[in-house]
Amino acid sequence: MTDALDERLHTLDAWWRAANYVSVGQIYLLDNPLLRRPLEPTDIKPRLLGHWGTTPGLNLVWTHLNRLIRERDVNAIVLAGPGHGGPVAVANAWLEGVYSAVYPQIGQDEEGLRRLFRQFSFPGGVPSHVAPETPGSIHEGGELGYVLSHAYGAVLDNPDLVAVAVIGDGEFETGPLAASWHANKFVDPTHDGAVLPVLHLNGYKIANPTIPARIPREELESLLRGYGHEVLTVEGDDPMDVHRQMLVAMDAAHDRIREIQRLAREEGDVVRRPWPMILMVTPKGWTGPGMVDGQQVEGTWRAHQVPLAGTRDDDGHRKLLEEWMRSYGPEELFDQDGRPVAALLEIAPSGPRRTSANPHANGGVLRNPLDLPHFSGAAVEVAEPGGSIHEPTRVLGTYLAEVMRRNADNFRLFGPDETASNRLDAVYEVTDKVFGAEILESDEHLAHTGRVMEILSEHTCQGWLEGYLLTGRHGLFSCYEAFIHLVDSMLNQHAKWLKTTRTLEWRPPIASLNYLLTSHVWRQDHNGFSHQDPGFIDHVVNKKAEVVRVYLPPDTNTLLSTMQHCLASMHYVNVVVAGKQPSYDWLDAEQADLHCARGLGIWEWASTGGPEPDVVLACAGDVPTLESLAAAALLREHLPDLAVRFVNVVDLMRLQDERAHPHGLSDRAFDAVFTTDKPVVFAYHGYPWLIHRLTYRRTNHDNIHVRGYLEEGTTTTPFDMVMMNDLDRYHLVMDVIDRVPGLGQRAAGVRQFMEDTRRRARAWTREHGEDLPEVQQWRWPGSAAG
């Protein structure tokens, strides 16, 4: 070992020891941050919360990445899969000086260190994970499985960025993580950056050994090579030896990355090559207490959280804690004022090259608005309601193609093998699907470079998009409605991130997370019951009101207007549900835009009887709108004296009270539309109780009767599907008759006719395998198509 190398390694070790010291202090200490005196019970937090076991390994990665950044001017961010190692990100941000710049009250001195320690996992302080409050974080890691997909999303269209993704060996066992290993087949080395995975094998989860640590090493490395990686191993428990190995591995990994990119960018050689990764094998809770109360801690699952749990009340534990912290040599690492010594800071990068200050980890500062065409350029002509038929998502595809044309490095479309199935294939006129593995002559729209991302893993698509958004770009996730539930937990985490960052002025807003849910519950003609579930809306509505938006456009032009609005929005989760099958056009472009701006409105052309209605016929969703209009036509035909007000809802959150949601209607406005005392028959796309939940405070709530999905379904015709759930036009007419006072006796014959027609319709499907001709051929009265 040369003197120069020896000096570099000792400098690295000093930073690592300092980071470990600051990490331990955050878990344990309220006061006495530099151990100026022996620890006392009052120096210890009453509740010890945090995770030590993963911390020294994470600090090792941060330490050596900082060295690489400084020596080679690498543009890099870190994503900690073991996000419960939160003290690591805070410690390194503080050592880099970024934490004190963002939070001036946490100075880079002894008092700042005391405050830093005190706030961690403490009431009114900061969370224990790599949370949004931590500079440099785009990945909290509170839920395991997403670190690789987030990292790959971050490097798309970021050609100079390296995302170092640390994967815990517990996280390695999760399904989403397993799928995301294949994300390296979707990186274009010409235009994208690179991900450097670091699989950290410390052997244990919270109470059990991990699978990758207990299978033969050859088997594990074969698996990783099979995923498409060159494995560089760093292993041991001697700090100086491990530092030497990590230095060599980091340099080698960076060399491999740059060579792959050079071949692609300078020589046009895009043959897929193994990307480097580091297999880091170190003890659980490395450098922490070896034995506690006669039991081994270091290198076991006992080091996972707090190795010394009784330090406030147990003199022996407190003495062990002091010995542990003093073993890092704080007197060598901090000066008399508590500042990191100058020699220690030599390893830190400067300015935006610091991982905690890298702008890619604060995507709002990089976000540029999309260049969005006005949707009217793609709108369909509607001379009269119901006078034409289009496939809404196919028309939307033409609009998205223009969006992609105008935003060639700022917008991507994500989905699980469903872009064409969801009728969005017009985008292929502008871009292909990116695919780095073998491409055959028989393949269509596959290329080594492209802006459509498809993998049959909803988790990976969601993670890609989140990483893309969090680093300042824009996108859309298109998915079958029933299967978007697979990312329920991921949506939870992202919504929490958005909610928290709304309160952090130093984090500007990012682009919204936009979902297009199609192939929906009411039109699963050949897939059946397994593909019928509208419940994602209910899940989304549970999130904070300032973050979530739900839209149910009734036709093609309202879908276009809605999507333009969503793509332009910031810091929301937008859920848009729209069918892909041929359906009627109700509103022209101008009417659609106005209707969407209102969020809900009275359709005068579908209403009868003047300003004072006998009943309100309301609907939300494309199929409920069709059935409600058909019911309105039947009422017009059979009960011409009945005054019917027809109301369509696009923005579901308009139903809520304005005090509960920013889009909510005032009570006065709601009562003006839905009345204070008239029956309301509401045909809804999803589970009916959600409408009751949104409107329970309203004056007229007791008169609101909702029809929706009742968990009845099978492979059947479209109309039979709505009949199975009592959402059909005939049942809606019966609901009106049953609920308008005094109408039941007068309209008994009409009601009986509706019942009989339902039976006839059901029998027809069973005999002919298709819907009743009068249902198939129905048109809005007076339309050109009628």
TrEMBL record:
HAMAP family named among the record's database cross-references: Phosphoketolase
The residue ranges of the Xylulose 5-phosphate/Fructose 6-phosphate phosphoketolase C-terminal domain are: 580-780
Q: Which residues form the Xylulose 5-phosphate/Fructose 6-phosphate phosphoketolase N-terminal domain?
A: 6-365
Q: What class of enzyme is it?
A: lyase
Q: What is its EC number?
A: 4.1.2.-
Alphabetized UniProt keyword annotations: Lyase, Thiamine pyrophosphate
What this protein is called in its record is: Probable phosphoketolase
Q: Give the family this protein belongs to, as stated in its UniProt record.
A: Belongs to the XFP family.
- Record's NCBIfam families? PRK05261.1-2 (NF003617), PRK05261.1-4 (NF003619), PRK05261.1-6 (NF003621)
Kindly list the residue ranges recorded as spanning the membrane: none
Q: Which co-factors does it depend on?
A: thiamine diphosphate
InterPro entries named in the record: Phosphoketolase (IPR023962), THDP-binding (IPR029061), Transketo_C/PFOR_II (IPR009014), Xul5P/Fru6P_PKetolase (IPR005593), Xul5P/Fru6P_PKetolase_C (IPR018969), Xul5P/Fru6P_PKetolase_CS (IPR019790), Xul5P/Fru6P_PKetolase_N (IPR018970), Xul5P/Fru6P_PKetolase_ThDP_BS (IPR019789)
